[in-house]
Amino acid sequence: MMNHPVEDPKKSTNLVIVPRLGDRYYLKSVLTNVFGPRSIPYIRENIMANGQVFGGPCDEYEQVRTGLKVFDLADIETACPGEKSGSRLSQIPDESVIRLGYLFRTCDALVRDKSILNFAVKKAGQLSKNPTAENYFNIVRLFDVTADITNKDSEVFEKISSQDSYKKLPSEKQWQLLFGLTCKSTDWQVL
Amino acid sequence: MKKLRLFWFVIFMTFGTHAKESTNLQSSLSEQQIFRRCYSQMTRLYLPANDSRLTLIKNKKATAVELCMNLIHKAQLNNQLQISGTGHTRIETDAIIKTFNTFHVSWFQAYFFARQSDEFFTANVYDSTEMSIPYTLAFFKPGIQFRETLTSEKAYESVRSTKKPIYFLDHFENGEYLKVDDKDVWVTGGQLEVEFKPDLVQTGKLLGFRESKRTKKFVEQYEGIKMNIVPGQAMGGGVLGSSSYLLLNSGLDREDIPDGHFYAHRSWSKAIVNDLLCRSLPVLTEEDVVQDIKNDSQLEFQKNVKCLTCHSTIDPLAQALKDKMILPVYSADGPKMPIPNKSLLVGDLRRKEGPVRPADNVKPGYLKMRAFNGNLIEKPAGSIKELAGSLSETDDYYICAAKHYFSFFTGVDVDLNSKVEPSSAVADYYNFVVAEGLKLKQHQDVRTLIKDILSSDFYSSPNFGVKDE
After folding, report:
1. d(Cα A90, Cα A55) in Å, to the nearest integer?
2. Do A96 and B127 touch (CB under 8 A)?
3. Which of A59, A107, A115, B273 ranks highest by number of CB atoms within 10 Å?
4. Cβ contact (<8 Å) for B306 and A29?
5. A99: nearest CA in chain B?
6. Which tens digits make up the pLDDT trace of A145-164?
7. Model confidence over B314-362: pLDDT tens digits?
8. Which of residues 67-86 of A touch B (CB under 8 A)?
């Protein structure tokens, strides 16, 4: 072995801090619990399939090949079909604009699906009635059961609900907006 | 919980922000929030509102840290090293063990054959994740001392749901579907070309672990030296004795025989410094290596003091592996081609008598480096076992483990390569990690380390003490 590059003697810095965000498995668990089993296809398409963005390494030995391009997976979401780099994904994913983009897309798709929205709303109030501040707080606590409800949350709801454009919306659209807003928040993703 | 959106936005927009001021440990999460934090991190599962543990906390029947530790306790492996439990407990247990097993895998920069170099075949014979298992056992099997990750004589492998081994990775090359099965004949590289039908790693859902029982032996010969090849057999020295670790990191081509000069498993040495000590080369100063300069050497790097600041660490370490070489596996059909591209085996060149090899004339291996605190370490490392023993006596090995776990729970990754200003915010984290590492060396219990991290002010702080800028 003759190749012996000189190492860069430059030492790196002392501390690197990244937000302790949940990975794709955590996001899936939260969103599935909030929005119900019908949400799974959306989550698979936008979040689980984008491991590079959301983090969460897979286990390559859960992948069992029984023939050429024939897979038998112990767990379709934690094995790594077709992605060799999947086992290398970080458990502490980086925040990124792309991550936000995929999350926004997921949340929009979930709240636009009436049956999915209905499933979620039942846990926080009634679809036929306009959401109250307490309903909004319920939504926040649905995503994170231990979330502190602060004056800021009251102010957020106050600001939204005082808008004329919001007031004109039918109750379903108001629920849609509040669920969408909370779903897109980073707060519940921080562990 | 305090709203963190703005904070995290600032952090992420500046990628790798360096805390400049003192840490902020004034505010604290509630006990329920601390439990939610550890639960979500360890299981990656949603914590529902009706979880009985939240009630226990609310009624002051238990603390968050007690319940977090109870999660780990419930996930402990049974005496047969299998994952146990039923119902929801089993779901949580599976999740926790999976989280930490993959986390331990991530400590190693090279850890999967198929990803590393398209070595599909090799991944069937050697468990790519073998190095992580000792750490998972130390975490989930009470009574195992952390130093055993280096000193154990045993090799372990995963037990998975597909009991009958299946070649889970196959290869399509040059228009031909290559699969190791009964229809194709494979032979070991070497002078004897022995038919190669090894035992295989298990695949499927992870059920637990076991001591490697694979004993199928292949006798090969290379340059007159007979070798017993037993894929999966322990080489001693815990993690260091992992064949997978050698194969993933050797840097030598197949059939290169280590001679202590041109040919040495230097990349393996470098990987040890990176993976097990959390350091990057060089870990010696120019003053440390002046006496190693050999102006008459045929190797340029032995004449250059800058080169030697790395080579004076990695070359002597590689001597611990002077008796190990890497062999290919060939398809016996058609032209003699190693198939797939780099099918590898570890061959042992040790023998009781016979000609002296060049590597035998080189000074026995030793560990030479500056420790995290700048102290010079010089310890024997003439064999894998001796090197492992020497590493297990360093502080750095335990501090590195503390750094990994602290990073997992907080997202704060402390760099052990350089000293810190005592007054800086960095120092708070650095000192904590170093202190916990030193304590780990004393008590040898990973769970105590985890409990210390979870009980720390950093962990109960909304943003782990990072000052909101």
Report:
1. 5
2. no
3. A59
4. no
5. B12
6. 999 998 889 999 999 999 99
7. 999 999 998 888 888 777 665 555 544 455 677 776 666 666 677 777 7
8. 68, 72, 74-75, 78, 84-85
Report chain B's terminal Cα–Cα distance, integer Å: 18
Picking from B103, B75, B119, B174, the residue whose alpha carbon sits closest to that of residue B326 is: B119
Main-chain dihedrals φ then ψ at residue A60, nearest 5 degrees: -65, -25
The answer to whether the beta carbons of residues B264 and A1 sit under 8 Å apart is yes
Residue whose tokens read 């238990």: B62
Q: Write out the H or E segment, with its range, that includes residue B385.
A: helix B384-392
B32 is written with which tokens?
A: 């329920």
Q: Is B427 helix (H, G, I), strand (E, B) or coil?
A: helix
State pLDDT tens for residues A112-126.
Answer: 999 999 999 999 999
Distance, C-alpha A142 to centroid of its chain: 13
Instruction: Judge contact between B130 and B244, C-beta under 8 A.
Output: yes
Which DSSP string do the residues of A54-72 spell out, in sequence order? H-----GGGEEEEETTEEE
Distances (CA, A) of B226 to B260, B350, B354: 20, 9, 11
Could you list the mean pLDDT of each consecutive 10-residue stretch along chain B, which spans 469 residues? 38 35 73 97 96 97 98 94 87 95 92 60 82 96 95 91 60 54 71 83 89 82 81 87 88 82 92 96 96 91 94 95 84 56 63 68 89 95 95 98 97 88 83 97 98 96 76
Q: How far is the C-alpha of A91 from the C-alpha of B95, rounded, in Å?
A: 13
Contact B18 A7 (CB under 8 A): no
Residues of A in contact with B266 (CB under 8 A): 1, 4
The answer for A 108-137 residues in CB contact with B (under 8 A) is none
* Distance (Å, whole) CA B253 – CA B267: 12
Please enumerate in sequence order all residues whose Cβ is within 8 A of that of B13, keeping only pairs 6 or more positions apart, or say none: none
Sorted by where each begins, the domain ranges of chain A are: 24-56+91-189
Q: Residue A166: how many CB atoms within 10 A of its CB?
A: 15
d(CA A180, CA B128): 42
Distance CA B1, CA B27 (A): 10
Quick one: angle between helices B64-74 and B87-105, nearest 10?
A: 90
pLDDT of residue B232: 79
